[in-house]
Amino acid sequence: MDIETLVQNQANCQFAIVAKGADVIAGLMTKLKGFSNVEVAEADIYEQDVKLGSYDLILAVPAFGQRNMVGKDTDFCSRYYEFVAMENLLAHLNQRGKLVMVVPKRFGYAGGGVKMLREKIISQYGVELLADLPHSMLMGTAIQTMLVALTADKQRKTMLRVYDVAERNRMREVLAVAVQQERIVERCELEDRDNWDVGRFFISDDERWQKYEASTLPKVALGTIAKVFRGKAVPARKKDSGDGGEAGADGATELGFETFGVVNISNLGTYEIDFEGADTVVGDARKMAGHVLKDGDVIITARGTVIRVVIYWQPEGQQYIASSNLVVIRPDFDKVTSSHLKLFLDSAVGRLLIQQTQQGTVVMNISPKDLAMIEVPLLTLDEQWNRENRYRAELIRYENAIKAANNRWQHVMEELQEF
After folding, report:
1. Closest-CA residue to 263 (of 241, 308, 287, 293)
2. What local confidence, expressed as pLDDT, does residue 245 receive?
3. Alpha-carbon distance 184 to 129, whole Å?
4. N or C: which end of the chain has fewer CB within 10 A?
């Protein structure tokens, strides 16, 4: 539904259409000049002292994906434009007013200033609706979004919803959505939670999650016990890293340039990395040094359709980097072991947590920043190393058993196929 149709269908309401830029304002005034119940105002909803009135209902889709307001001296909780707009517009609700916004899904779980904004909202306003929207709801962005309805009065109940696509047109634009999951929570539940991620509320009904939540094990954010970063974007096989170095016909490289193996999604198995099938890239050794994988790094797929978690062990004779389709978790070995992280991330609860960070539905897109915020149970180091030793010993036994079974099967088939 466009603005003109919305205004036409609500002829008994007064509308204030707020935009920025003379050309945009002129276009809106031309489009809506036949409606006496519409005021077109030029204002910047990202500025501290925006001059607007008070309203019964504010509908907003703020700017997405812009860099945060670095260097600007503001009193807003967050420096992200979409959340600045939210905080700004809340101040322009009248006593019975409601703000309905589409915002990035990270509003529900991000820390820092976004968490401060959630705390401000629950202390001063009401939360009528928190709803996850389908992936690609907004054409032209891969950002996963949610619909939020906030009220001036402190409502006692909040509706939680997960929407799915009900209808698309030939251009794959979403024409209609349908409720996939729905439940109501009391205000006190939001007050008691640091995390308002909608999916987290629904997985709380899962028995495995309930057992994990009831556990007395200490839980810490992954980012406090490991460095989490995305792999490096690299060009095609045997091309340079963008710095001019390139392998010659005889495989030689320019001075200061080296050949690095590239681990990609296709190289990840369940427990190991297929180094033989890995591509290579030539790059400036100094500039590539920060991207080189180290023993014990935990690699997880950031994109694709299947989550794989593998521990990296340096093979002889070749250094490797991870591609940008992967996220690298580099443990602080004074706090956590590699196998502890793999075992947890591969567990049922670990997968539930990873799924909550996905910025996609069918094709996932995991952000290192969001992954660093998931909570990991922390055993003592002695317990972790005991598990590590058992994990490695049993993995060797498992691989040997698989190898022996394959060899036996091949031998039997060779015998049976002799004619």
Report:
1. 293
2. 45
3. 9
4. C
